[in-house]
């Protein structure tokens, strides 16, 4: 939905362009805001009304029955017969009977018959009347960037103005002190030892057997020399 003067609407679906200058909960409020801009001699061809979160709303107005369907069909046919009778009365000569009244009854009869047949074919699947609307949760008023500031200043009189500056993102929460260097720079992992785990020392290969220090067990032992001086003769 857009209000434009000499500007033409694009033939192909095109996203709206401009900055959000105001936001309202109902379409009547957004329409009032654009009308306020027009009263202030603002270039409203630069303004666009955009509805967000569209929904289709069907409001039930009543229950259908054969008498109600027949009455509605007769009235619709009677209006059409009245129109046809007025056209035929323009071509009738003076002194002849006017075809207006017969045309009304004939049109009403055809409308009644058509309405009853249509309702009977539905087999009771839709025994109510309703009206449908497309509504939005909110309506934003957009304006081209070159005139957005002026539009905000004019709309401050009726409210709903939104700033054009984007909201600053919230700072992330930190659980460690920023002065702790170990939190910002974690220690590097030690290189893996190709021979196994660095905590277990490698096992040395077994050496050659030690040579025997005593005489063999199958030979007699040598006599023990006395440790004292020899006896005198």
From TrEMBL:
<feature type="domain" description="General stress protein 17M-like">
    <location>
        <begin position="20"/>
        <end position="94"/>
    </location>
</feature>
<feature type="compositionally biased region" description="Low complexity">
    <location>
        <begin position="166"/>
        <end position="194"/>
    </location>
</feature>
<feature type="transmembrane region" description="Helical">
    <location>
        <begin position="103"/>
        <end position="121"/>
    </location>
</feature>
<protein>
    <recommendedName>
        <fullName>General stress protein 17M-like domain-containing protein</fullName>
    </recommendedName>
</protein>
<feature type="compositionally biased region" description="Pro residues">
    <location>
        <begin position="199"/>
        <end position="218"/>
    </location>
</feature>
<dbReference type="Pfam" id="PF11181">
    <property type="entry name" value="YflT"/>
</dbReference>
<dbReference type="InterPro" id="IPR025889">
    <property type="entry name" value="GSP17M-like_dom"/>
</dbReference>
<keyword id="KW-0472">Membrane</keyword>
<keyword id="KW-1133">Transmembrane helix</keyword>
<keyword id="KW-0812">Transmembrane</keyword>
<feature type="transmembrane region" description="Helical">
    <location>
        <begin position="69"/>
        <end position="91"/>
    </location>
</feature>
<feature type="region of interest" description="Disordered">
    <location>
        <begin position="165"/>
        <end position="233"/>
    </location>
</feature>
